[in-house]
Specification:
133 residues, 2 strands, mainly alpha
């Protein structure tokens, strides 16, 4: 197994537990509101999306690949989608502003972080013109 494949496997292995944590913590956090001037502001959804972005950024930078960040976002989105599709008495993510921000924000944050994490990827080394004789 070469170094790139080992790094990719390690990145995916780290992305799965990170996605599980972010999905569960974000689902618990997204429903928190603060009342400001009579208006409910869903700060929990913003906090959950910030947690997701931090986890994806860490995965992308640590493993120098967009793949772990993408896997983390996809698994988190799948778990959050599953939590929102349960029967009405057991549903953890309901259809309100905070739930919509959390569900659709996962996709938006993941896309933004995939573009951002492209700068961390390792490019294959080529021989320089001076060193090859």
């Amino acid at each position: 197994m070469n170094k790139w494949a080992a790094g990719t496997a390690g990145g995916i292995a780290a992305a799965i537990p990170a996605a599980l944590f972010v999905a569960l913590a974000g689902t618990m956090l997204h429903g928190q509101y603060v009342l400001l001037a009579g208006i409910q502001i869903p700060w929990g959804a913003a906090g959950a999306l910030t947690l997701l972005g931090a986890a994806e950024l860490w995965l992308g930078a640590a493993f120098r690949s967009v793949l772990p960040a993408g896997v983390c976002g996809a698994v988190c989105y799948a778990l959050a989608g599953w939590c929102s599709s349960l029967e009405p008495g057991r549903r953890l993510i309901i259809r309100n502003l905070a739930g919509s921000l959390w569900i659709y924000g996962i996709a938006a944050v993941t896309l933004v972080l995939l573009v951002w994490c492209r700068r961390y990827r390792q490019l294959p080394r080529t021989q320089s013109a001076v060193g090859s004789r």
